[in-house]
Amino acid sequence: MASNTKDLQEKILKLKKERKALILAHNYQIIEIQEIADFVGDSLQLARKSAESNGFEMIIFAGVKFMAEMAAVLSPAVPVYIPDPKALCPLAGYLDAEKIRKKKKEYPGVPVIVYVNTTAEAKSEADMICTSGSAVEVVESLGVDRVIFGPDANLADYVRTHTSVEIIDIDQSGHCYVHNMFDLSMLIELKEKYPESVAIAHPECPIEIQEQADMVGSTGMMARTVAESDAKVFIIATEMGMLQQLQKRHPDKTIIPMYEGAVCRQMKKHTLEKIVDVLENLPSENVVTVPEPFVPHIREILEKMNTVRGQGPATAVKAET
Ligand code: 13P
Ligand code: SF4
């Protein structure tokens, strides 16, 4: 590891203690950030961890902005900082509140479930929120025949294959550009080359990939599966940060990316330098807030989501250094 990286990491660990900062990082962060985080996990795990900030004076959330907003809502007593405020998930851009209102008029009385990858305004129109690790359980928790769902059409397809509840898309074009990079031919080729491998795909992948994968699940589920499985070779269809983590934690296993170009540019905006800057200067422009009128409703549905059993373990995985 470059000495500059080590120096920055040591500086962060020292400042973190002085500031009483809790550092939460998504599985897609660069490995150097994962190494200095208190917890690394999927969106559901991080939402649950965000609600446990007692004893800390600030949270630094290395993930895309909607995730940091989640933390701001669930942990109102502690300021939440994002290392780069421009880390915005493009999938969230598919769903504005007006689109949801229109859909509600079309299907009166049908509950709306939005994926957590949405803006606060979109969430304020929803009856429930889900993550990839809790989508099926959240849909079924409502005990209804049909739900309005968005914005990710691939995740909607995943839910359809796991429930008899009718899923009405809000926007069939909603997708994640990173997970849409995967092509079925990539999986077929790798499966031929590594016949003993286990292929795991994220539910944001197109349905034809999901159908041919051995398992489909959140990034938290991927971490758990690779840790618990006896298999030695895994083909993984998700963002590259997850693969770096898996390979580091399991040097005895071979982790093969379905496509090495699957990099989320928004997740990668965060750097060690930007975390140092937040810890040293507490820049007000890096504080994440949610407009006050939206907060009570979003808090209510996020807390409801946190009580639904999901795919991942109840708490996030402690970062390894
Ligand atoms: P997870 O909740 O599975 O970590 O997914 C978040 C995400 O942004 C996937 O692209
Ligand atoms: Fe958004 Fe896709 Fe990046 Fe996840 S990987 S944060 S869904 S753009």
Written account of the structure:
The protein is α/β, with parallel strands linked by helices. The protein has 3 domains: about 5-90 and about 265-290, Rossmann fold (3-Layer(aba) Sandwich), CATH 3.40.50; about 90-170, NadA-like (Rossmann fold, 3-Layer(aba) Sandwich); about 180-255, Rossmann fold, CATH 3.40.50.10800. The protein has helices at about 5-20, 30-35, 45-50, 65-75, 95-105, 120-125, 135-140, 155-160, 185-195, 205-210, 220-230, 240-250, 270-280, 295-305, and strands at about 20-25, 40, 60, 80, 110-115, 130, 145-150, 165-170, 200, 215, 235, 255, 315-320. α1 runs parallel beside α13 (about 270-280) and α3 (about 45-50) runs parallel beside α4 (about 65-75). The radius of gyration is 19 Å and the shape is globular. Bound molecules: 1,3-dihydroxyacetonephosphate and iron/sulfur cluster. Iron/sulfur cluster binds near residues 117, 176, 178, 204 and 239. 1,3-dihydroxyacetonephosphate binds near residues 42, 117, 131 and 204.
Topology summary:
Elements: H1 3-19, E1 21-26, H2 31-36, E2 39-41, H3 43-50, E3 58-62, H4 65-74, E4 80-81, H5 97-106, E5 112-115, H6 120-123, E6 128-130, H7 135-141, E7 146-150, H8 153-160, E8 166-169, H9 184-193, E9 198-201, H10 207-212, E10 215-216, H11 219-228, E11 233-237, H12 240-249, E12 254-257, H13 272-281, H14 295-307, E13 317-318
Parallel strand pairs: 1-2, 1-3, 3-4, 5-6, 5-7, 7-8, 9-10, 9-11, 11-12
Antiparallel strand pairs: 2-13
Helix pairs in contact: 1-13, 3-4
Residues 27, 42-44, 117, 131-133, 176, 204, 218-219 line the site of 1,3-dihydroxyacetonephosphate.
